[in-house]
Amino acid sequence: MKKITLILFALIGSYQSFAQKTSTINVDFNKNIGEMYPFWAFFGADEPNYAYMKDGKKLLSELSTLSPVPVYFRAHNLLTSGHDTLTLKWGSTNVYTEDAKGNPIYDWTIVDKIFDTYLQRGIKPVAQFSFMPEVLSTKPQPYEHHWQPGMPYNDIYKGWTYPPKDYKKWANLVYEWVKHSVARYGKAEVETWYWELWNEPNIGYWSGTVQEYCKLYDYTADAAKRALPTIRMGGPETTGPSWNKAADFLNIFLKHCVSDTNYVTGKIGSPLDFISFHAKGAPKIVDGHVQMNMGTQLRDISEGFRIVTSYPTLKNLPIIIGESDPEGCAACGMKTNPQNAYRNGTMYSSYTAASFARKYALADFHKANLLGAVSWSFEFENQPYFYGFRDLATNGIDKPVLNVFRMFGMMSGKRVEVKGNQNYNFTMVRDSSVRGKNADIDALASKDAHSAAVMLWHYHDDDVQAPNANIEVNLKGFPAKQVNFHHYRIDNENSNSYEVWKKMGSPENPTKEQIAILEKAGQLTLLTSPSYVKTQNGELKMTISLPRQGVSLLKFDW
Length: 558
Fold this sequence. Notes:
One of its GO terms (molecular function) is hydrolase activity, hydrolyzing O-glycosyl compounds. By secondary structure, this protein is of the alpha/beta class. Helix content is 31%, strand content 24%. Among the domains are: 22-33 and 413-557, Glycosyl hydrolase domain, family 39 (Immunoglobulin-like); 76-272, TIM Barrel (Alpha-Beta Barrel). The chain contains 13 helices and 24 strands. The chain starts with a helix and ends with a strand.
């Protein structure tokens, strides 16, 4: 009898344990909460010249293919002096030099090569007026940096960061570039681009004052609007607004555009068509493993939205989060920065799914007009395989994080209501991140005229092993009695080139056969074969087992 009682207690305990671990996700496709607008279709890189190189072209083509709308690409160094290079955190186009008499010489060869590559693949530029050409810099020497991973970050800030010695010559450069772009690509095309001034002017990227940046913005915007009155001009691309000094700079700039005297026209205000700032997380090593900090990034976004919407005349302007990432240095590999070891595997992909869903929620909460969130993540030419850069692909091999964007590309129409017994809502993740014993098991869902999709994730800030999440998914609002069902998955066994590479023995020089296997493993794959599923009164119930740091997309068509 005692033995039977113990067995019963054990069974009850197992049942209670299972019940505690089961998460419920309820999706109502009839309850719209907003547009499923593709703000995620923005990417960027420090190194503009990679765009027209072998792996750069390949990745741009893939980015264009995954998105139902044009992808935008933001790059630094589009006006930097020098010639195309493979140096990390650097790039150059040499568009501006002068003759012996100080007359300007414009050469659009390299910048055209970059933009031609974009447009040939359906990519549109977020065209950045940066950085200062050597001959215009007030402190030109030393000009080019020679930074490598592991070196102090401040080593990159050289002569290209300084204000112009002649603002009118700078303005003429701006005018001529926009005018040339219209002549080459057509007015209708250039009107669809976004143009901005500089990058992170509140830190070392700009060696002038905030007032000098505002002055440069006035000269830039005036010249750009003279060349193309309908151009979309914005800024200031400051660092995270939750940092006081960054918030101060952002506020000074916005106030200048609204109510200060324009340095060029002498009138009040400066034209501003969109507003941009950055948002970054802060991973670290804790007890021997990587611990992410999604809350830090979401607080940047939340504070930026709050600041922008506090200005009555600006609150409806589009916002581009010009860099929106788990941390701040794409070119800092995991060997020199071990906290970046999240980048090759599923930690990066699950973080992306969970954080982007919260960006929708934060925009809803603040009534902010979120246009884009740039993933500052592209590729690095001629670098070791899976070195741990923050990139979407390595030597032409797609990494798991790229497959999250493939999933986003299959979601369209309206965002719909998701409820259940989730452990976190967006304010909890923003304020406290995802810590403690409970994981973030949640979903983002959408519905279009003839399709619906549910993205599920099992995320935690701590990159440690844990049991699979048992998720009961209750769906209602299907307009059809039968739907075609596809289940896509990113985990250690699916859509994961990194795990396949490790099983190969982590080859530094894979063979052609191995590369072909890795390229296939880098694509988004189905967990199960497609099937037709019958609904009952427009409802459907499913049970999903999702590994820690895994992401699933449940796609339905009718």
